[in-house]
Amino acid sequence: MAIKFNRVDFKYQGFDNKGYLALSNINVSINAEGEFITLIGETGSGKTTLVQHMNALLTPTSGNVTIFGLKIDQENIKKKKFRLNPIRQKVGLVFQFPEYQLFEETVLKDIMFGPKNYGVDEATARERAIKMIKVVGLDESYLDRSPFNLSGGEKKRVSIAGILAMEPDILILDEPTSGLDPLGRDALLRVFNDIHQKLNKTIIVITHDMNTVYEYAKRVLVMRDSYLVYDGDPHTLFSKKNIENWNLDIPDIINLLHHLEKDFNITFPKQPQNVDELLTMIEEVAK
Ligand SMILES: Nc1ncnc2c1ncn2[C@@H]1O[C@H](COP(=O)(O)OP(=O)(O)O)[C@@H](O)[C@H]1O
Ligand SMILES: [Mg+2]
């Protein structure tokens, strides 16, 4: 198991010193290979706080998180020789607006910054930059450009290439598609899916877009008021009972299915995975 939360509570120390409980009794495990997880929940439910525990940016107030064998808790984090670099390299975290963190004069230098910072030599860092700019769907000509003269979507891609160049086993993206138009959003999601499939990395995406959840995720985590309230597959999550209980937004395809069932009094044998499957089911029913 790559990451394991064990009874994690996290409290932000507010200015009034009362503290604010952002995580309550979190127990969850993440594999290093091949998971595509989406993390959803209302604003303020604790999503960002949760993922910041996955590469030890935050330390549990109580309980512990084990990340690639390293146990993060209050006691260990205070030890002088406790080294976080190895896990920071293994778990790549892309912040919500990563484009604000680009600062080098060229895209190439920006992508090379991370790996060099973790001790990779110049030539290897350059090789990785050339590889990763393509993985995120841009061509090599971008490497000589200034990151400041790129579109929002291009900047996000460059930031992601920078994290990928550190060769993390797990890639975490905090609302990566916010601020993008639908086309930009879809393009970026395909990039994540590619990374997941071709590089066999575990991807964790925080999102508000239920279509993304339904179409891409094999596993969904739902946060609510600092608690992890669901950990399972998207199909079950969007079953009728849960939609009512959880007050969830509904993926377009499920909405369409419900309309068809209600307005035409059709009962479909199961929930379709995508539009093609729904069309096939309609053809079957129409026979
Ligand atoms: N630096 C901080 N100091 C105090 N409270 C914070 C801080 N960051 C987040 N919080 C609070 O913790 C809760 C969870 O925040 P967050 O993890 O950012 O939620 P989400 O990402 O789901 O919107 C929120 O109520 C938020 O106001
Ligand atoms: Mg957040």
Estimated radius of gyration: 21 Å
User: And the CATH topology of the largest domain?
Assistant: Rossmann fold
Fourth CATH level, the homologous superfamily of the largest domain: P-loop containing nucleotide triphosphate hydrolases
Helix content: 25-40%
Give the tally of β-strands. Answer: 10
Shape: globular
User: What is the H-and-E element order?
Assistant: EEEHEEHHEHHHEHEHEEHHHH
Q: Please identify the top-level CATH class of the largest domain.
A: Alpha Beta
Under the CATH scheme, the architecture of the largest domain is: 3-Layer(aba) Sandwich
| Distance from first to last alpha carbon | 48 Å
Helix/strand/pairing category: alpha/beta
Determine the number of helices (DSSP H or I, runs of at least 4 residues): 12
- What bound compounds does this protein have? adenosine-5'-diphosphate, magnesium ion
Approximately what portion of the residues adopt beta-strand conformation?
15-25%
Please state how the strands of the largest beta sheet are arranged side by side.
Answer: 6-7-8-3-9-10
Describe the structure in your own words:
With 287 residues, this protein is an alpha/beta fold. It is built from 12 helices and 10 strands. A 6-stranded mixed β-sheet has the order 6-7-8-3-9-10. Strands 2-1-4-5 form a 4-stranded antiparallel β-sheet. The mean pLDDT is 91. It binds adenosine-5'-diphosphate and magnesium ion. Residues 12, 14, 20, 22, 41, 43-49, 223 line the site of adenosine-5'-diphosphate.
